[in-house]
């Protein structure tokens, strides 16, 4: 199992668009992916679950990835967070 704390750097937090990006990206992997913070736990296969984390900008979430391709799945998840879900928030 891979475990890592990831920080939500996006100016708009973990919202519908970023949650959808996580679901789409993690669907490419066999591993089970869970994100959690102090308020909730979310299956990364569910946009609704991810939005229920209510992860505002600056929130740290713990990522748990388990499966045959867990290292690649974790790297893809890290890339999403580090690159603000490939979105330029500077334009609002």
Please list the strands of the largest sheet in the order they lie side by side: 1-4-2-3
Q: In percent, how much strand structure appears in the residues?
A: 15-25%
CATH fold title: Histidine-containing Protein, Chain: A
Radius of gyration: 12 Å
Distance between the termini: 37 Å
Q: Count the helices. How many?
A: 3
Main pleated sheet: 4 strands, antiparallel
Helix content: 25-40%
Please provide a written account of the structure.
By secondary structure, this protein is of the alpha+beta class. It has a single domain, classed as Histidine-containing Protein, Chain: A, CATH 3.30.1340.10. Helices cover 32% and strands 23% of the residues. It is built from 3 helices and 4 strands. Strands 1-4-2-3 form a 4-stranded antiparallel β-sheet. The protein is globular and about 30 Å long. The protein starts with a strand and ends in a 10-residue tail after the last helix.
Give structural attributes:
92 residues, alpha+beta, Histidine-containing Protein, Chain: A, four-stranded antiparallel sheet, 3 helices
Briefly characterize the structure.
The chain has one domain (2-86): Histidine-containing Protein, Chain: A.
């Amino acid at each position: 199992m891979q475990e890592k704390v990831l920080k939500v750097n996006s100016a708009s937090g973990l919202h519908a668009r970023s949650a959808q990006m996580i679901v789409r990206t993690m669907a490419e992997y066999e591993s089970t992916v869970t994100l959690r913070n102090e308020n909730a736990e979310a299956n990364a296969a569910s946009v609704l679950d991810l939005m229920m984390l209510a992860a505002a900008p600056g929130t740290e979430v713990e990522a748990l990835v388990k499966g045959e391709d867990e290292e690649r799945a974790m790297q893809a998840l890290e890339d999403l967070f580090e690159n603000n879900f490939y979105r330029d928030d500077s334009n609002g």
